[in-house]
Amino acid sequence: MAYDLLIIGAGLSGLFAGCLAARRGKKALIIARGIGGTHVSTGTIGVCAGDRSSLDALLSSPEHPYGFVGRKALKSAVEQFKTICAEAGYPLYGDVGKNFKLPTAAGGTRQTCLIPETMCAGDLSRRESFALASLPGFRDFNATLAAANLSHVTLSREAAKSLSGTNANEAGIPTITLPLPHPPTHRDPYATDLALLFDLPGYRDELITAWQPLLTDVPKRIGLPAVLGLEHAVEAKQHLDSALGVELFEIPILPPCVPGMRLFNLLRDDFQNHGGRLIIGPVVSGRIENGRAAVAADTNGRVKEYKADTVILATGGFLNGGLVAEFDGKIRESVFGLPVPAPAKRSEWTSEVFLGPHPFVKFGARVNKNMQPLDANGRPAASNLRAIGSIIAGADRLSEGSREGIELATAWRAVETVA
Fold this sequence. Notes:
The protein is of the alpha/beta class and about 425 residues long. Helices cover about 30% and strands about 20% of the residues. It is built from eleven helices and 17 strands. The protein has helices at about 10-25, 50-60, 65-85, 145-150, 155-160, 190-200, 200-210, 235-245, 260-275, 395-400, 405-419, and strands at about 1-10, 30, 90-95, 100-105, 110, 115, 130-135, 175, 220-225, 245-250, 275-280, 285-290, 290-300, 300-315, 325, 330-335, 385. Strands 1, 2, 11, 12, 13, 14 and 17 form a seven-stranded mixed beta sheet that branches. The protein has a four-stranded parallel beta sheet with strand order 8-7-9-10, with helices on both faces. It has a two-stranded antiparallel ribbon with strand order 3-6. Helix 1 runs parallel beside helix 9 and helix 1 (about 10-25) packs parallel to helix 11 (about 405-419). The longest helix is centred in the first third of the chain and has 23 residues, at about 65-85. The chain is globular and about 70 Å long. The two termini are about 20 Å apart. About 45% of the residues are buried. Residues about 155-170 have low confidence and may be disordered.
């Protein structure tokens, strides 16, 4: 079978590109070794952690992925992504150029552009007081630690006064313990275990009965680990909020991260519901012949060739296996062997400061404005090949807070050039 688009990689960029293509009536295939980075992500969409001027600087940089795609592609991608999520019953809130300020599980803060309804009440720009909740037996979130480290968050005078006499820490952020009916007893529960329980209306009724007497003397804004449900998180939040008279908000925790899994599930379903085909498991290899990219997949020794008008490479960076650093000091792109410029001395890949910034974070394949990866001479490596997401060079995604924005914008731009 021949496809209009063959996408290698099932992370955020690959799935989003597949959804865009399938929604345009294209015959699309996503094939990947694994599920990508969604399950270890926060489930939010970061575009730029700074203010508008910071984003403008990235958009005007000729070396940055935003500089290749442009402002229109970024805004269009974000709006299309919001549409897909809203149609799935899991709306995301926010706009390009603005950020929410959210607490982290360790008690830090982070800025991000789009967030689900389950996190909206956690925006630290709101001045109302809030509490953090621990769930007994769940070791992946410590409310006391998070509250202590959030001591730099300044509450309003009214909020501080309202907390007088409560069991508050130095920051004025109280912590509470909310029991879990029928917790797993054979092992420590994972976030997914609890999320599946929160999906059940009957279990939420038990939670309401257990929690209601404990909430009389605490703020009506309560943060808890991100376990409010895997398939019905919005419904679960609204149910609990209404019955308890509070505003719950989720705080993403260690992987597997439930909000990231929700995004994977809804993108996968949208892609398949619009006629796309998803294959996860084979080892994918590629070659370039006569200026065109071809793809084969190896499933336990059985190799199958796939034909497609356009191939989109969305395999990610070093963490996802899209880029591989060899012992001889060379970096290779793992599917087509595309050139990845880097200093010959490995000592020049990192800085002397452990937390960076490190040069290697900007390594990757070079592309043109059509998202075509370039060969060593600066020409398109293959006429039908595109590269998107974290495999593209030029961005320090972590410090910029731009990872998901780049994933979406480059996917939108690549599909726009061929579909």
